[in-house]
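Below is how a single chain appears once it has passed through the pipeline. First comes the sequence as given, then the structure the pipeline wrote out for it. We keep one example in the README because the format questions we get most often are answered faster by looking than by reading.
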Amino acid sequence: MKMALIVNHVTNIEANFRHIVDAIHKCVDDKTDLILFPEAAITGLINDDNPLHDILLGSPIPGEFTNTLTEVARDQKIHIGIGILEREGNKLYDSAILITPDKGIVLKYRRMTSGWHGKHANPKVYCEGNEFKKVETALGTFAFLICGDLFDDDLIAQVQKLQPDWLLFPFARCFRDGTYDQEKWDKEEKSKYIERVKIVRVITFMVNYLADKKLDGGSFGGAMVVLPTCEVIAEMPIGREGVLYVEI
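Resulting structure:
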């Protein structure tokens, strides 16, 4: 399986989606089997706990964006995983979907930890998922965790029980000062993510988007593929957009 982890630069929604589709076509040209985009890749986590603002960021699943991605996946014969702020009525979820070329959306996962919104956000609007599952595809079995889910022991236990072949992990992470500090990432953060993969015991594909500080605090990008042995077999440095390819 040839995998592409896309570190996209989040700006405005229309430009973001256009760049996502362009990136998919480039990966098709490079004979990629599956593409993974970060958490909330179309919008970034720019929600501010004001429902009047945030509901407009959400997209229904299925909906306009996901229908387009489904068509691209079918036409280009490629699998696509992507994080998306999901709107269901007057509720918002931090979700991720897996699209296959033959069946469309085969897996939708809603983040179960609440760190994507503020502590005092209206719980009737800002919601978490309650189901963890895996799905069988032509490339093997897949499951999602999103961002803070990786650090929840109960969720890790569910992954261990189901044991998918591959774990897709879109996330959004920034430093408080908005910098792209590779040394700080290497010394203070990276090992924590790797250790969680060791506990999960599943090969994990991680990708974070890139954003300016004024947008969402400055998500710093980066991507890596981690084995349960703690070996990082592919990695993209933080602070730049681009594609990390890995064959596994």
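The CA atoms of residues 54 and 102 lie 33 Å apart.

See the next section for the split statistics.
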